[in-house]
Write a structure and sequence with these properties.
Blueprint: H1 2-15, H2 31-34, H3 79-89, H4 96-117, H5 119-140
Helix pairs in contact: 3-4, 4-5
Region (Disordered): 1-56
Biased composition (Basic and acidic residues): 37-56
Biased composition (Polar residues): 1-10
Length: 141
């Protein structure tokens, strides 16, 4: 009876295309990703043309000696968030401090932009969050 079950299971699995992880490597779609990548050729350059350096500082990873051939210039570092980003990019990427400082810099950048967009409304929000509890406790007594 067990032999019939095994034969039946093998027959069922044989009908399923792509069944089995340990199948023939020539038929496995993931095998090309396991091979060493080879240059395909056809490019008109050996190294990409470098983007001209901008007038403002562009941040780069600590591991890089120079800027990459193409880099973003849409949001240059500014204010306190820029200072935090400069410090973060001085730390290697494999450290948690690097990522955490970049996250804090993003939040600070949001606060800076909100303060610049509407100073009165932003100031009242900040005072409400920071001093709201203190003010309420003083008013209740």
């Amino acid at each position: 009876m067990a032999e019939q079950d095994m034969t039946t299971a093998e027959q069922v699995h044989a009908d399923i295309p792509g069944w089995g992880v340990d199948g023939d490597p020539n038929n496995r779609p993931g095998v090309p990703m396991l091979l060493k990548p080879e240059p395909r050729g056809g490019a008109h350059w050996d190294r990409p043309e470098r983007q001209p350096p901008p007038d403002f500082p562009v941040l780069k990873r600590a591991e890089l000696d120079a800027l990459t051939p193409a880099f973003g210039t849409a949001a240059p570092p500014k204010g306190l968030s820029g200072v935090l980003r400069r410090v973060a990019y001085g730390i290697p990427e494999n450290r948690a401090r690097h990522v955490m400082l970049l996250l804090v810099a993003d939040r600070v950048d949001v606060l800076e932009s909100r303060l610049l967009r509407g100073p009165a409304k932003s100031l009242s929000t900040v005072l409400g969050l920071v001093g709201g509890g203190w003010l309420l406790s003083r008013l209740r007594t």
